[in-house]
Design brief:
Elements lengths: L11 E2 L8 H12 L5 E2 H4 L3 H6 L3 E4 L14 H9 L4 E5 L21 E5 L17 E5 L20 H7 L26 H9 L1
Parallel strand pairs: 1-2, 3-4, 4-5, 5-6
């Protein structure tokens, strides 16, 4: 689609093409039948540094939601080169090397400037060590019916600004404070009263 808009694109695939199957194989064939060409990573490896100098944006679509554990070669080397290239990097769904869930991170991961997350936010985005790798994020719907997620074994929801605002009860400005409800705080301990004190001041 970028090439049809006149954008100069260098398309690189890393595994042998015989490993492509399903949707990946289908779209690879459509790409080729549209008259466009791709190159193996190994063909560009020797001149990879020069290639990176010639591009303005790097689109990372190497590793997806199945990433677990250490990143193996040649992905490890490629990720390190991209991270040191000082080019704008856009990841699709997940920065390569970042697991979807709470699994430990591996040895390397793409440090994206922007990540287009497909359909739903990934749990790893909310974890302290992994969130910085996502950069700015935007969730893009890809047509999965909402009913699909009702059958997931684990259900999670995001409690954000809108949910918090709608949970507040509207009170009459002239109502006596004693009739607006009471707050009970269970927090802290004899030697650590800080959390309880801060919560009480907030109320």
């Amino acid at each position: 689609m970028l090439q049809e808009q006149g954008v100069s694109v260098i398309t690189t695939i890393i595994p042998n093409e015989c490993r492509y199957e399903g949707d990946a194989k289908l779209h690879k064939r459509i790409y080729e039948q549209s008259g466009y060409r791709w190159k193996y990573w190994r063909e560009l490896e020797k001149n990879w540094a020069e290639t990176l100098c010639d591009v303005d944006i790097i689109i990372d679509a190497m590793l997806g939601t199945g990433t677990k554990g250490e990143v193996t070669q040649p992905y490890e080397s490629i990720i390190k080169m991209i991270n040191t290239a000082q080019k704008e990097t856009v990841s699709i769904d997940l920065p390569s090397g970042i697991p979807t869930d709470e699994s430990p991170m591996g040895n390397v991961a793409i440090k994206a400037d922007r990540t287009f997350i497909l359909q739903l936010m990934k749990l790893s985005y909310y974890l302290e060590r992994k969130k910085p790798f996502f950069g700015k994020t935007e969730v893009l719907p890809i047509g999965i019916p909402p009913a699909t997620f009702q059958h997931l074994e684990t259900q999670r929801c995001i409690w954000g600004k809108e949910e918090a605002i709608h949970s507040w009860k509207k009170q009459d400005a002239f109502r006596h404070k004693g009739r607006n409800g009471r707050v009970g705080i269970i927090a802290g301990s004899r030697n650590m009263p800080g959390a309880a004190a801060l919560a009480a001041e907030a109320v």
